[in-house]
Design brief:
With about 375 residues, the chain is an alpha/beta fold. The chain is about 40% helix and about 25% strand. Helix 2 runs antiparallel to helix 3 and helix 5 runs parallel beside helix 7.
Length: about 375
């Protein structure tokens, strides 16, 4: 069926809607620098041409107000086909509001919805619209929160490795801003015992350590064959990351708090990481995520998608330098609850577009989601 068209003979965006949902965690969650007992998802739906595109981000409820008050009018009336133009218009509109942070999340959610809408109007899986570089997307199990006791940690790790056959997993360390180093060391050793010798083990300090402390911890991580050391210090410290990268054997990674393309360029220019991370729900959506991947490829590095795995699935399959996606416990639980069309990580990979559903393949379970509606 041909899309409904307006004006120039092509479909235009005619309405943008938002909703805020807050979901309690199934247990208290924490990392090196923060604890939380609920997670908020901001959903954006963009209507145009007789179809609806869906996007979302995780963050403060105020993100929805940014979409409603600063972005909806900007994209309304624009061509559905020209998503990069809409992205640029949004970036210009928020210049004086301060783009990093929740405003970047708002731009990202709208951009994701626009890409989904375009693919749905063309009746194509998003990966067919973008063009595939691969058919399978590796994932790693992520959680291992500092708030977990020994039994919770062991149970989660064994579920990923033994039940789902995911051959790579990550736990949180850096507890209490690095003030629980002994417990960090014990948890790393325990995690290795839980998963055995064959699976890859990653660790994420969420910026909780100082530079010298991170270097000390890097040696301990190497003893337990930890190959991925995420945010050993703040991701706002590319010089510190570069110094740690030069001193330890595990790969140093960061980038989840990249809100602009320039940030990724600065990280790469500083030699701060062995693998760049980027989050499409924060960096400016699919449009900017693809550009970050190109920057990383030009620097000879791979890119890893941070959290929100169902947002990243199709775009991850479109880049040649993908490392993997984070199968984050908190987000996969919510996405399975809220959406039809979620993917199965059995065997350690997902296969976006395999079912042929248009767009990113997700459909909001409105009645189920409404139970958690907070705005």
């Amino acid at each position: 069926m041909a899309p409904q068209t307006v004006g120039r003979g092509e479909p235009l965006v005619h309405r943008v809607e938002t909703a805020v949902y807050t979901v309690p965690t199934d247990a208290l969650e924490g990392d090196g620098t923060l604890t939380w007992d609920s997670t908020t998802m901001v959903v954006v739906q963009v209507h145009g041409g007789g179809a609806t595109g869906l996007g979302y981000t995780y963050g403060a409820a105020a993100t929805a107000h940014v979409v409603d008050q600063q972005l909806a009018d900007v994209v309304t009336g624009l061509s559905v086909w020209d998503v990069p133009a809409a992205n640029e218009s949004m970036n210009r509109a928020v210049r004086n509001a301060g783009r990093p942070g929740l405003i970047a999340g708002a731009v990202s959610a709208v951009d994701i919805a626009l890409w989904d809408l375009k693919a749905r109007l063309l009746d194509l899986p998003l990966i067919r619209l973008l063009g595939a570089s691969r058919t399978d997307v590796p994932v790693y199990g992520s959680g291992g929160f500092t708030t977990y006791d020994e039994q919770q940690l062991d149970r989660q790790l064994r579920c990923w490795v033994e039940e789902l056959d995911i051959p790579r997993v990550k736990i949180k360390i850096g507890e209490s801003w690095g003030r629980a180093e002994r417990r960090d060391r014990e948890r790393i050793a325990r995690a290795r015992r839980s998963i055995g010798d064959a699976a890859e083990l990653y660790a994420d300090a969420n910026g909780g350590y100082g530079c010298k402390q991170a270097i000390r911890m890097g040696r301990h991580l190497d003893e337990h064959d930890v190959t991925w050391f995420e945010e050993p210090v703040s991701s706002d410290d590319p010089v510190g990351l570069a110094a740690i990268r030069a001193a330890v054997l595990p790969e140093v990674t960061a980038g989840e708090y990249g809100y602009t393309l320039a940030y990724f360029g600065q990280m790469l220019g500083a030699g701060a990481v062995d693998c760049l991370q980027a989050d499409a729900t924060r960096c400016g959506g699919i449009t900017v995520w693809l550009r970050a991947a190109a920057l990383a490829e030009a620097a000879g590095l791979e890119l890893s998608g941070h959290c929100a795995p169902h947002v990243h699935a199709h775009v991850a399959a479109a880049i040649p330098n993908l490392r993997h996606l984070e199968w984050f416990h908190d987000h996969t639980r919510i996405e399975d609850l809220f959406f039809d069309g979620t993917l199965d990580p059995q065997g350690g990979s997902i296969h976006p577009g395999a079912e042929g559903a248009p767009g990113h393949g997700l459909t909001l379970r409105s009645e189920q989601a409404e139970k958690y509606r907070t705005g």
